[in-house]
Amino acid sequence: MTKIGLEIHCQLTKLESKLFCPCKADYRGFEPNSNICPICVGLPGSLPRLNQKALEKAALISLALKCNVPGKISFFRKNYFYPDLPKNYQITQFDAYGHTSIGNNGIINIEGKEIRIRRIQLEEDPGRLIYEGSSEKTQITLVDYNRAGTPLVEIVTEPDFESPKQVRVFLNILVDLLENLGVSDPVLEGAIRADGNVSIEGGNKVEIKNVSSFHDLEKAVHFEITRQQSLADRNIPIELETRQWDDRRKITVSARSKEEEQDYRYFLEGDIPWVVLDPKYIDSLKKQMPESISSKKDRYIKQYQIPIQVAEVLSSDKYYSDLFEQSYNDKNAKEIANIITTDLMGFVDTKEKRAQSKLSSQHLSELADAIISNKITRNSAKTALQEIVQTGKSLSKIISELDLGQVFDESALLGVIDQVINEEANAVNEIKEKPETVNFLVGKVMKKTMGKADPSITLQLLKSKLGI
Ligand SMILES: [Zn+2]
Question: Which domains does the chain have, with CATH numbers?
Fold first, then answer.
């Protein structure tokens, strides 16, 4: 049986400072090696101090993933030499004296399957290596320590996945959950990264590193299953090793034989005392935990009769659910959900567009009310929405400026229908044999009225005119 496990690294991007020093947690956009201090580059005599907010966010993640959070936690030094790690050890967590990481034994449900979370640990991110050209051929490697010491939460799963598709579904659910918790911004480059490990029946575990996107991880896992199966078919043993994903060739290549835990010579970080987590503290965190995505979804379905698929989209994206929560009332909730998940999604599909959008919750509420009271058709509402997102003007101003008010006058509509029937003689002739042609004529009327006619009234009028 194929077994796949994951290690996910999530940067706590919402924090002000790094994990053990006052440097900025948001290292992006700085000159190389300017966001550093003696602590994060490990100069002799410097002492780390734990960022309490980082501890809080890591505990929130653990609770959200239904992990046990122990009564006291400790930090360890993981020793290894690599140029991006100026101290030659990483401050992380490790379970040497029972469970002393921030979380253990959690669970996430994906499509009816339970994925067990083995451990969650709070640790520091290393610096970054920058290669000139490709990493294999370059003569020059640069190092930037701005990222060194930024707070990271590592989530380690049990090898409970059986297919690359399950991996993808899980990662999507996890990313939405982390965003909903307000701990990380998944749109930021490198904010949430994942490595995988794969083993097939009777073979050793192979780790896959250096995967830059979830999409590539799915491909890498798929490649690795196929590679291992073909070795097994030829009775060639599968080595215990770490393999790198080669993005250009879309294959995994052997990187090094796998280190064992003892190779890292873990020992307690003596500069940081054990941290006691009082049950009252954990209770207070539980109270400040935001409503979960699944509970939001259930509430939207039960309270406002929003269809399941719409409720799923709305609840899983924090930007949409925040907009919805701020704009709905009992009468227009369903319509607002509809506007967000059908029209708005197309206008704010990137982080930049979201940041630039001038749409307010009041706009959304007014727009939904205008549709419900037949002041505007759905079609015109979409045009108005686009204008609002771009300009932030009031709905009434946009309706009058763009002349979007609904055409109600039946005689005016009948005039347009007569015109269309005259112009589209071929389609009218076809209608007896192909009744669905009437939709084509509705489309023509909508076009002539710039989308201001009510499509269902138009359809009725056309049918009675044509005697069908
Ligand atoms: Zn620092």
Answer: 3-283 (no CATH), 293-402 (no CATH), 410-466 (1.10.10.410)
